[in-house]
Write a structure and sequence with these properties.
Rossmann fold; eight-stranded mixed sheet; 9 helices; 8 strands; disordered N terminus; binds S-adenosylmethionine; binds magnesium ion
Protein backbone atom coordinates (compact mmCIF):
# COMPACT_ATOMS: atom_id res chain seq x y z
CA UNK A 1 0.00 0.00 0.00
CA UNK A 2 1.19 3.50 -0.69
CA UNK A 3 1.46 6.03 2.09
CA UNK A 4 -1.37 7.96 0.51
CA UNK A 5 -3.91 5.12 0.64
CA UNK A 6 -2.95 4.36 4.24
CA UNK A 7 -3.85 7.94 4.97
CA UNK A 8 -7.25 7.93 3.28
CA UNK A 9 -8.17 4.61 4.86
CA UNK A 10 -8.68 6.65 8.05
CA UNK A 11 -8.84 3.97 10.75
CA UNK A 12 -10.19 4.45 14.24
CA UNK A 13 -7.91 3.73 17.18
CA UNK A 14 -8.40 -0.05 16.98
CA UNK A 15 -7.96 0.04 13.20
CA UNK A 16 -11.33 -1.56 12.66
CA UNK A 17 -14.83 -0.48 11.68
CA UNK A 18 -16.24 -3.37 13.67
CA UNK A 19 -18.40 -2.76 16.72
CA UNK A 20 -18.78 -6.26 18.26
CA UNK A 21 -22.08 -5.43 20.03
CA UNK A 22 -23.59 -4.26 16.74
CA UNK A 23 -22.40 -7.39 14.91
CA UNK A 24 -23.93 -9.66 17.58
CA UNK A 25 -27.37 -8.26 16.70
CA UNK A 26 -26.98 -9.33 13.06
CA UNK A 27 -25.42 -12.68 13.99
CA UNK A 28 -28.60 -13.47 15.96
CA UNK A 29 -30.88 -12.65 13.02
CA UNK A 30 -28.85 -14.22 10.20
CA UNK A 31 -31.22 -17.09 9.41
CA UNK A 32 -34.07 -14.67 8.65
CA UNK A 33 -32.53 -12.66 5.82
CA UNK A 34 -34.68 -14.08 3.04
CA UNK A 35 -37.95 -14.31 5.00
CA UNK A 36 -40.01 -11.38 3.68
CA UNK A 37 -42.04 -11.40 6.89
CA UNK A 38 -39.11 -11.97 9.24
CA UNK A 39 -36.91 -9.53 11.09
CA UNK A 40 -35.65 -7.95 7.89
CA UNK A 41 -39.15 -7.12 6.66
CA UNK A 42 -38.34 -3.36 6.62
CA UNK A 43 -35.40 -3.99 4.26
CA UNK A 44 -37.51 -6.22 2.00
CA UNK A 45 -40.14 -3.46 1.79
CA UNK A 46 -37.50 -0.81 1.14
CA UNK A 47 -35.67 -2.83 -1.49
CA UNK A 48 -37.56 -1.80 -4.68
CA UNK A 49 -37.24 1.90 -3.80
CA UNK A 50 -33.52 1.86 -3.09
CA UNK A 51 -33.01 -0.34 -6.15
CA UNK A 52 -34.79 2.31 -8.29
CA UNK A 53 -32.45 4.94 -6.90
CA UNK A 54 -29.29 2.90 -7.46
CA UNK A 55 -30.22 1.93 -11.01
CA UNK A 56 -30.98 5.51 -12.05
CA UNK A 57 -27.99 6.97 -10.16
CA UNK A 58 -25.36 4.52 -11.42
CA UNK A 59 -27.01 4.68 -14.84
CA UNK A 60 -26.59 8.47 -14.87
CA UNK A 61 -23.03 8.44 -13.48
CA UNK A 62 -21.74 5.84 -15.93
CA UNK A 63 -23.94 6.72 -18.90
CA UNK A 64 -25.85 3.45 -18.84
CA UNK A 65 -29.31 2.90 -20.25
CA UNK A 66 -31.32 1.93 -17.18
CA UNK A 67 -33.88 0.16 -19.38
CA UNK A 68 -31.37 -2.17 -20.99
CA UNK A 69 -31.23 -5.77 -19.80
CA UNK A 70 -27.83 -5.66 -18.07
CA UNK A 71 -27.02 -1.96 -17.62
CA UNK A 72 -24.23 -2.59 -15.09
CA UNK A 73 -22.20 -4.88 -17.39
CA UNK A 74 -18.48 -4.20 -17.00
CA UNK A 75 -18.81 -2.37 -13.67
CA UNK A 76 -17.04 -3.73 -10.62
CA UNK A 77 -19.16 -3.13 -7.57
CA UNK A 78 -18.77 -3.66 -3.81
CA UNK A 79 -21.76 -4.15 -1.50
CA UNK A 80 -20.20 -3.55 1.93
CA UNK A 81 -22.23 -4.86 4.88
CA UNK A 82 -24.22 -6.92 2.38
CA UNK A 83 -26.02 -8.99 5.02
CA UNK A 84 -27.95 -11.81 3.34
CA UNK A 85 -27.54 -10.22 -0.09
CA UNK A 86 -30.96 -8.58 -0.55
CA UNK A 87 -29.40 -5.89 -2.72
CA UNK A 88 -26.29 -7.76 -3.80
CA UNK A 89 -28.32 -10.20 -5.88
CA UNK A 90 -30.11 -7.58 -7.99
CA UNK A 91 -26.72 -5.94 -8.67
CA UNK A 92 -25.44 -9.22 -10.12
CA UNK A 93 -28.65 -9.62 -12.14
CA UNK A 94 -28.05 -6.15 -13.62
CA UNK A 95 -24.74 -7.41 -14.94
CA UNK A 96 -22.22 -6.00 -12.45
CA UNK A 97 -19.21 -7.97 -11.27
CA UNK A 98 -20.10 -7.97 -7.58
CA UNK A 99 -18.19 -8.47 -4.34
CA UNK A 100 -20.47 -8.79 -1.31
CA UNK A 101 -18.69 -8.34 2.02
CA UNK A 102 -19.92 -8.59 5.58
CA UNK A 103 -18.10 -8.89 8.90
CA UNK A 104 -20.57 -11.55 10.12
CA UNK A 105 -19.63 -14.97 8.77
CA UNK A 106 -23.14 -16.37 9.15
CA UNK A 107 -24.46 -13.64 6.87
CA UNK A 108 -21.95 -14.64 4.21
CA UNK A 109 -22.97 -18.31 4.54
CA UNK A 110 -26.65 -17.41 4.15
CA UNK A 111 -25.93 -15.05 1.24
CA UNK A 112 -23.67 -17.53 -0.58
CA UNK A 113 -26.16 -20.36 -0.31
CA UNK A 114 -29.03 -18.19 -1.54
CA UNK A 115 -27.07 -16.85 -4.52
CA UNK A 116 -26.10 -20.39 -5.46
CA UNK A 117 -29.77 -21.45 -5.35
CA UNK A 118 -30.54 -18.51 -7.64
CA UNK A 119 -27.75 -19.46 -10.04
CA UNK A 120 -26.02 -16.11 -9.45
CA UNK A 121 -22.28 -15.64 -9.42
CA UNK A 122 -21.32 -13.33 -6.55
CA UNK A 123 -17.93 -13.09 -4.85
CA UNK A 124 -19.00 -13.18 -1.18
CA UNK A 125 -16.39 -12.55 1.48
CA UNK A 126 -16.46 -12.48 5.28
CA UNK A 127 -14.35 -9.39 5.74
CA UNK A 128 -14.33 -5.67 6.44
CA UNK A 129 -13.98 -2.60 4.26
CA UNK A 130 -10.55 -1.82 5.72
CA UNK A 131 -9.22 -5.31 4.97
CA UNK A 132 -10.41 -4.95 1.35
CA UNK A 133 -8.79 -1.51 1.10
CA UNK A 134 -5.54 -2.85 2.54
CA UNK A 135 -5.58 -5.64 -0.05
CA UNK A 136 -5.71 -2.95 -2.75
CA UNK A 137 -9.24 -3.75 -3.97
CA UNK A 138 -10.86 -0.98 -6.03
CA UNK A 139 -14.39 -0.59 -7.36
CA UNK A 140 -16.38 1.57 -9.76
CA UNK A 141 -19.17 1.74 -7.19
CA UNK A 142 -19.28 1.07 -3.45
CA UNK A 143 -22.71 0.50 -1.90
CA UNK A 144 -22.99 0.93 1.86
CA UNK A 145 -26.64 0.46 2.65
CA UNK A 146 -27.95 0.67 6.20
CA UNK A 147 -24.52 -0.03 7.67
CA UNK A 148 -22.97 3.32 8.56
CA UNK A 149 -25.17 3.62 11.67
CA UNK A 150 -23.72 0.30 12.90
CA UNK A 151 -19.96 0.83 12.48
CA UNK A 152 -17.49 1.91 15.18
CA UNK A 153 -16.47 5.19 13.53
CA UNK A 154 -18.71 6.38 10.65
CA UNK A 155 -16.30 9.05 9.34
CA UNK A 156 -13.41 6.58 9.22
CA UNK A 157 -15.69 4.03 7.55
CA UNK A 158 -16.76 6.53 4.87
CA UNK A 159 -13.07 7.37 4.29
CA UNK A 160 -12.34 3.67 3.81
CA UNK A 161 -15.22 3.40 1.32
CA UNK A 162 -13.68 6.35 -0.55
CA UNK A 163 -10.31 4.58 -0.62
CA UNK A 164 -12.10 1.58 -2.18
CA UNK A 165 -13.56 3.73 -4.97
CA UNK A 166 -11.72 4.25 -8.27
CA UNK A 167 -11.31 7.81 -9.55
CA UNK A 168 -14.54 8.68 -11.35
CA UNK A 169 -16.41 6.12 -9.25
CA UNK A 170 -19.26 6.58 -6.79
CA UNK A 171 -20.31 5.54 -3.33
CA UNK A 172 -23.95 5.24 -2.42
CA UNK A 173 -24.80 5.34 1.27
CA UNK A 174 -28.21 4.96 2.89
CA UNK A 175 -28.95 5.44 6.56
CA UNK A 176 -31.30 7.01 9.11
CA UNK A 177 -31.41 10.70 9.90
CA UNK A 178 -31.20 11.80 13.55
CA UNK A 179 -34.46 13.70 14.04
CA UNK A 180 -37.41 13.51 16.45
CA UNK A 181 -39.38 11.98 13.56
CA UNK A 182 -36.82 9.21 13.05
CA UNK A 183 -37.03 8.34 16.75
CA UNK A 184 -40.79 8.01 16.32
CA UNK A 185 -40.61 6.02 13.08
CA UNK A 186 -37.51 3.83 13.39
CA UNK A 187 -37.48 3.16 17.14
CA UNK A 188 -41.03 3.55 18.49
CA UNK A 189 -42.78 2.61 15.24
CA UNK A 190 -40.62 -0.14 13.75
CA UNK A 191 -39.34 -1.72 16.98
CA UNK A 192 -41.91 -1.06 19.71
CA UNK A 193 -45.24 -0.91 17.88
CA UNK A 194 -44.87 -2.84 14.60
CA UNK A 195 -42.21 -5.14 16.09
CA UNK A 196 -40.63 -5.40 12.66
CA UNK A 197 -37.22 -5.31 14.33
CA UNK A 198 -36.08 -6.58 17.73
CA UNK A 199 -35.95 -3.81 20.35
CA UNK A 200 -32.48 -2.28 20.43
CA UNK A 201 -31.62 -3.00 16.78
CA UNK A 202 -31.17 0.71 16.25
CA UNK A 203 -29.68 3.28 18.59
CA UNK A 204 -30.99 6.74 17.77
CA UNK A 205 -27.82 8.53 18.88
CA UNK A 206 -25.91 6.62 16.16
CA UNK A 207 -28.12 7.98 13.41
CA UNK A 208 -26.45 10.50 11.09
CA UNK A 209 -27.85 13.69 9.59
CA UNK A 210 -27.50 14.27 5.82
CA UNK A 211 -25.26 17.26 6.57
CA UNK A 212 -22.97 15.08 8.70
CA UNK A 213 -22.82 12.36 6.04
CA UNK A 214 -22.17 14.89 3.26
CA UNK A 215 -19.38 16.32 5.44
CA UNK A 216 -17.81 12.88 5.90
CA UNK A 217 -17.96 12.26 2.14
CA UNK A 218 -16.44 15.65 1.32
CA UNK A 219 -13.66 15.11 3.89
CA UNK A 220 -12.94 11.76 2.23
CA UNK A 221 -12.57 13.44 -1.17
CA UNK A 222 -15.97 12.32 -2.47
CA UNK A 223 -18.39 15.26 -2.33
CA UNK A 224 -22.09 14.41 -2.26
CA UNK A 225 -23.62 14.93 -5.69
CA UNK A 226 -27.14 13.69 -5.00
CA UNK A 227 -29.44 12.92 -2.05
CA UNK A 228 -32.99 11.65 -1.73
CA UNK A 229 -35.31 10.83 1.11
CA UNK A 230 -36.93 7.39 1.26
CA UNK A 231 -40.38 7.90 2.68
CA UNK A 232 -42.82 5.31 4.04
CA UNK A 233 -46.47 6.03 3.40
CA UNK A 234 -48.55 4.10 5.99
CA UNK A 235 -51.77 4.64 4.05
CA UNK A 236 -50.48 3.30 0.74
CA UNK A 237 -48.19 0.98 2.76
CA UNK A 238 -45.26 1.58 0.47
CA UNK A 239 -42.01 3.48 0.10
CA UNK A 240 -41.07 6.17 -2.38
CA UNK A 241 -38.19 8.53 -3.12
CA UNK A 242 -38.53 12.15 -2.10
CA UNK A 243 -36.56 15.22 -3.10
CA UNK A 244 -37.32 17.15 0.07
CA UNK A 245 -38.23 14.78 2.90
CA UNK A 246 -34.99 13.32 4.26
CA UNK A 247 -36.28 13.36 7.84
CA UNK A 248 -36.17 9.60 8.47
CA UNK A 249 -34.54 7.35 5.81
CA UNK A 250 -32.31 8.76 3.10
CA UNK A 251 -29.77 7.78 0.47
CA UNK A 252 -26.81 9.81 -0.82
CA UNK A 253 -24.27 9.55 -3.64
CA UNK A 254 -20.69 10.76 -3.40
CA UNK A 255 -18.43 11.05 -6.44
CA UNK A 256 -14.66 10.62 -6.52
C1 LIG B 1 -28.91 -3.43 8.58
S1 LIG B 1 -27.83 -4.59 7.84
C2 LIG B 1 -27.91 -4.08 6.14
C3 LIG B 1 -27.68 -5.22 5.16
C4 LIG B 1 -27.68 -4.83 3.69
N1 LIG B 1 -26.72 -3.79 3.39
C5 LIG B 1 -29.04 -4.40 3.26
O1 LIG B 1 -29.30 -3.19 3.31
O2 LIG B 1 -29.88 -5.24 2.88
C6 LIG B 1 -26.20 -4.09 8.34
C7 LIG B 1 -25.12 -5.11 7.96
O3 LIG B 1 -23.83 -4.55 8.18
C8 LIG B 1 -22.97 -5.55 8.70
N2 LIG B 1 -21.88 -4.86 9.39
C9 LIG B 1 -21.94 -4.11 10.51
N3 LIG B 1 -20.74 -3.59 10.82
C10 LIG B 1 -19.89 -4.01 9.85
C11 LIG B 1 -18.50 -3.78 9.58
N4 LIG B 1 -17.77 -3.01 10.39
N5 LIG B 1 -17.95 -4.35 8.48
C12 LIG B 1 -18.70 -5.11 7.65
N6 LIG B 1 -20.01 -5.37 7.85
C13 LIG B 1 -20.60 -4.83 8.94
C14 LIG B 1 -23.87 -6.37 9.57
O4 LIG B 1 -23.35 -7.65 9.82
C15 LIG B 1 -25.16 -6.38 8.76
O5 LIG B 1 -25.21 -7.48 7.89
MG1 LIG C 1 -29.85 -0.16 10.36
Amino acid sequence: MTQDSTLVTGRNAEGSSVDPAELAKFEAMAAEWWDPNGKFKPLHMLNPTRLDYIISRIGAEFGRDARSLRPFEGLRLLDIGCGGGLLTEPMARLGAEVVGADAVERNISVASLHAEQQGLEIDYRATTAEALADAGERFDAVLALEIVEHVADPAAFVATCAALTKPGGVMIVSTLNRTPKSFGAAIIGAEWIMRWLPKGTHEWHRFITPEELAGMMAAAGMPAVDRRGMVFNPIRWDWSLSERDLSVNYIMTGRR
